[in-house]
Amino acid sequence: MHRHIRIKKLLIANRGEIARRIIRACKGLGIETVLAVSDPDSSSLAATEAGAVVALGGAAARESYLNHTKIIEAALSTGCDAIHPGYGFLSEDGDFAEAVRNAGLTFVGPSPESIRTLGVKTTARSTVTKAGVPVTPGSFVAGTDEELCQAVQSIGLPVIIKAAAGGGGRGMRIVRDIAEMGESLARARAEGLKNFGSDAVYVEKYIEEPRHVEVQLFGDTHGKVVHFGTRDCSSQRRHQKLLEEAPAPFLDSETREKIHQAAVAAAKSVGYYNAGTAEFLVKGKEFYFLEINTRIQVEHPITEAITGVDLVELQLRVAMGEPIPFEQKDIQFTGHAIELRINAEDPFENFRPATGTITAWERPEPSDAREDFGYRVGDSIPPWYDSLISKVIIHGASRADALYKTFQYLKHYRVEGVPTTIPFHAWILSNSRFQEDGIDIGYVEREFSGEGAEAALALLVTDPEFRAGNGAEPYTETATPADLAQGATSLSIVHEPGGTFLAIPHDSAGAPLTRSTWRRSTSRAAICGSRQ
Predict the structure, then answer these.
(1) What is the pTM of this model?
(2) What is the secondary structure of 459-488 as a DSSP string?
(3) Which residue in 5, 54, 234, 278 is a FRET match for 425, CA 20 to 30 A apart?
């Protein structure tokens, strides 16, 4: 495919921070923008920034952002020549992508054929397996209950039942006892039918305590496919991501490169172009293909941070028929980046989605952090859409540096008026397992507690730099103990709740030491050691 066009005016069929992100990329390319909005979003922050706004009507997604006819009519009536679906909503709907194309418009995304092939997980597994991509043992077709029960006998327990047309953790059930298969199949089928319009399910071997590692892919219409490295998205609740980082830590170079190559092979197997993300389960040196998300991801900014490439701009250029302007060897990776999803959810109530009005929003000033957000103080969080308020993106010279900077940023960051995931982020950032070894996809659901989050929030408040910034005397001291990690010249000692102490080693420039971890003790003397 070598179609060259010029996008002059783009309809954005999405909302919130991703709509603002697309507007920003369009301004850089001189593309006019029209934002399609539901009734609740008619005066949103994104609506004030778009070149024009067109009303879809309705509040619920099915009345607005999921309505094929309304969106295509909105594009045609406003003189647009292309549609960008963002993520979620219609971004992975092959029928919508085809309808856009049939209307004479450009769809900013992959082909309808690729979306359909990769959207049905059984078809995707079969296709990528032929390209040599490793997948978990399982059924390659959706079967009857009897057929799937027979498949379990050869696969072995535990297994996971998945909706063939599913995603986002819906339509999934883990089975550890064959006696549970009947009820689990019924529930998975019901969820699949409700959420995806299909009750087709299949089974896979369930991998215990894996990590979730993904690869940012990009293809063009000239046959080139490149990758932009890995991300780790293992910090999840109910299979929904909370924190992401790039590149994925704790991978040896050989395994990392094998994952890169498997992702590229999977994309090439379906003639993929535009942005996509290949997701894998990783256990040690073993990894297994999950799926390819046929859209830009929520977490794309951390890849932009370590590569310096504007991925949304690249989406638009590829949609216009331009070739990817560099080779794989030209893509360089610098430092480490972390993204915090600030969701309107209550971590103390099992991450229950929340609504309400944002009454205050405080950020560190000045700051070199990036924040992509779709709301302002005074805006209300509606009940009809995703709970994401904002994404905080921090880049550091190393993972330790990025973790430290993120924690420092969070100390001065507040959103008031609605419960948010900030307490969770305080907890995970100060979690020694997360800092030192990484976590698996089930760790948060096993280990997170309200008590732990309360303690982490208290640490934010009692940290010396934060207290000093609020007019209080800092409770800290600088020591040079004999057992400091190699390369450290100083150690910040912070008094934590419960009578314990936190030690953070620093280099001569005052930055946290790259390969050191924060150390805790119940005794200041023990943590400081002898003085020089």
Answers:
(1) 0.83
(2) HHHHSHHHHHHTTSPP---EE--TTPPTT-
(3) 278
